[in-house]
Amino acid sequence: NAGVTQTPKFRVLKTGQSMTLLCAQDMNHEYMYWYRQDPGMGLRLIHYSVGEGTTAKGEVPDGYNVSRLKKQNFLLGLESAAPSQTSVYFCASSVDRGAEAFFGQGTRLTVV
Amino acid sequence: KNEVEQSPQNLTAQEGEFITINCSYSVGISALHWLQQHPGGGIVSLFMLSSGKKKHGRLIATINIQEKHSSLHITASHPRDSAVYICAYLGGSQGNLIFGKGTKLSVKP
User: N or C, which end of chain B is more exposed by having fewer CB within 10 Å?
Assistant: First the structure.
């Protein structure tokens, strides 16, 4: 069982470039989340989804877009990367709101 | 304003010591999560508890809902326990987890 898989694991972008982070889960979970982790701060919610075809904004959504076309995949897009988006990004999934969350290994993104 | 406070922020211990990490929160909650983030970055869920105590191996988590406080204990600590320990509760307006900043534990052999 792979659990939650994120790709890529590392990426360096130039300011203004775009990219998509992919999160895939094989547990048939309804809920999926994208978080960012910055030094000295707790994980913060960017966007989340409560099922296929649905997405919603989290605490820090600006500069990001998401899509959930298939239940098992949750994509996070950066249309025009900025240095402030340098962070470690985590995807997570859960069977229900507040249930145990399963995390991906993280994506370390640097925007120069 | 972080609504979850963890203490200490950093903790260094000798192998074999008993470890306690504390988590306090300011709102009423139904359950609290403890997670472990390995030095390589991966995050795993350790416990989800709403009352009393849970034990898994050398790890014990306790919670007092009325006092808005939880503790994570590690007995007979080992260098492989070195990690960041994070507490979180379900409370965001989006129904999301609210995370503490984490406690970085280093266990020396």
Answer: N
> Could you give the percent of chain B with pLDDT greater than 90?
76
Residue of A40, A42, A103 with shortest CB distance to B4: A42
Q: In residues, how long is chain B?
A: 109
Burial grade of A18 (CB within 10 A; 0-12, 13-18, 19 or more): exposed
Residue B66 to residues A85, B29, B51, Cα–Cα distance (Å) = 38, 10, 10
Q: Do B27 and B47 form a contact (C-beta atoms < 8 A)?
A: no
A95 interface with B at CB cutoff 8 Å: no
* Whether A46 contacts A36, CB under 8 Å: yes
pLDDT interval class at B90 (50, 70, 90):
confident
pLDDT (tens digit per residue) in A22-67: 999 999 999 999 999 999 898 999 999 999 999 999 999 999 999 9
Residue located via tokens 């995050």:
B43
